Amino acid sequence: AAGVIQSPRHLIKEKRETATLKCYPIPRHDTVYWYQQGPGQDPQFLISFYEKMQSDKGSIPDRFSAQQFSDYHSELNMSSLELGDSALYFCASSLQTPGNTIYFGEGSWLTVV
Amino acid sequence: AQSVAQPEDQVNVAEGNPLTVKCTYSVSGNPYLFWYVQYPNRGLQFLLKYITGDNLVKGSYGFEAEFNKSQTSFHLKKPSALVSDSALYFCAVMGPRDFNKFYFGSGTKLNVKP
Lengths: 113, 114
Fold this sequence. Notes:
The complex is a heterodimer.
Chain A: E1 5-7, E2 10-13, E3 19-24, E4 31-37, E5 44-50, E6 53-57, E7 64-68, E8 74-78, E9 87-94, E10 103-104, E11 108-112
Parallel strand pairs in A: 2-11
Antiparallel strand pairs in A: 1-3, 3-8, 4-5, 4-9, 5-6, 7-8, 9-10, 9-11
Chain B: E1 3-5, E2 10-14, E3 19-21, E4 24-26, E5 32-38, E6 44-50, E7 56-58, E8 64-68, E9 73-78, E10 87-95, E11 98-104, E12 108-113
Parallel strand pairs in B: 2-12
Antiparallel strand pairs in B: 1-4, 3-9, 5-6, 5-10, 7-8, 8-9, 10-11, 10-12
């Protein structure tokens, strides 16, 4: 079965640079979520999209933005990167039905040096 | 507001013994509860969920969880632990009217020793 695809899997950026992460949800899923997981921490919700519109917002810094495109893939743009942005970034997708399972990708490792 | 608590940072179990990973929740209304497992440097894998119905939910890899409304708990269990079960386990809750995001617990590291 198709899963959530994230790219790149790893990237290294310098402080103040910009990074873009991509996410391809499971086909026919209408909702995409982004989470950030710092070392030794639980995943923190950043933002979600339903049918290409932002549906909810969590602890996403103002330096970050995201969008969902017509083909349902999503991109997380991170600017003015800081050392503290180093983390594993997960994308997840689901159908927006109460109680539906949210499926996660393998994550994108961002290291800011 | 929804939240979950996993009171144990780490659980140590001998292979072959039963295991329990604890989770309690706080939700307005009837919750949707989930368990995920994370292996090192990997994504979160869905194990099982409780939506409604039987309080005992069976999931992947022989895991099960019991929903207890009076104790607001959703403990993960397995009758006989395997060394390969060693991983990080997250409990998560989705509110009945807030299905755009999950609230995760802090995670419990399960160590199964041979």
